[in-house]
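Checked the freezer inventory, then went back to the computational side. Two predictions to log before the end of the day. The first one is the construct we discussed on Monday; recording sequence and tokens without edits.
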Amino acid sequence: MDNSPASPFQPQPLSNADERTWAMLAHLSILLNLVTGVLGTVAALAIYLVYKDRSRYVAYQSLQSLLFQAIGWVGGGAIVGGAWTISALLAPIGIGCLFMPFALLLTLALLLMPVYGIIGAIQCNAGQDFRYWLVGDWVRSTLTGS
């Protein structure tokens, strides 16, 4: 009988193919938001928590996806909702009609978010390093501590 102390669990690193797959799925999780509203962020968070110790690449890509979705769906959704509310409230006096094209433009921008996530998924599946505009550099500096 071996009485040596048990070694702590060491997670096994992911293969390159598995890294690409999980990074791709983290970006594609944005599509869940179209059906459920917020489960895409939950999926990206789950991928981050499960694989953060096994792959820096997957950690970086999934955390980027999580933050992009949270900022876009929560923050963007609030801004779009506010723009439509202001337009509706001011419509009876005519000024609201001037805000409607702006509200529509914001809505279309919000609906283009999944396209950006799909582009990220395609690049990750090809093994490229994808970076979301504004979010990517902040996430990289957070993960590397620099």
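The second is the one RB wanted added to the comparison set:
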Amino acid sequence: MSDEAVLRCESLTRTYGTGLTEVRALVDAKLEVRAGELVVLRGPSGSGKTTLLNLLGGLDVPTEGTVWLGDRQVTGASESDLVEMRRREIGYIFQTFALLSALTAVENVELPMRLIGVPADERAERAAELLAVVGLAEHTQQRPEELSGGQQQRLGIARALANNPRLIIADEPTGQLDSLNAEAMMSLISSLVHERGVAALVSTHDPRMAAHADRILEIHDGHLVRRQGRHSSGAEPDAGKVD
């Protein structure tokens, strides 16, 4: 694990509505994720996990606070700069897989590379390599509906890695999977993070997923409330602030 902070945020707050209808979905969040580190964000449904991930990934704008990707500020960046960051530096893994049904497995993996102009030969070589890494070398020409749920999520991981991102953001990536496939998926994500030196922030409500984390963040009612290392048995003294 590197000391380099790939992702960090300070005083991150997201409020929806005003007056009597105001809802504070996220309150004064502070965190960082380093290269080669798998951080699991744990909390019940509605606790603010997706809100936080959307803000960190540049998919939403905070009411207050700042997000950095490396030394580049995400908050306040132009839409064109955000698009480039999302395409080149961040890989997203979705609970619902979000694969394109009209494309084959290899075409789904090649798509992010097409968007940034990677030459065809390089696209094909990299896509084949990634499909082999996630165990889908024999399924390159199959479409998503011809794959099992676990295979579709493996395909989603390969696609997320297509442009060699610095950061992986995964929102409940095992939510549609049975326990056996969920365990295999988190093991795969963990090994890829550590082997490739990618920073990863993965949200889950499944306590079993925490076993794969280098660090665990807990969120309740929009507040990050605890920090744990892999071998920690409880909250650290500064539990009110997570960094």
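For RB: The longest strand covers residues 5-16. Residues 179-196 form the longest helix (18 residues). Let me know if you want it refolded.
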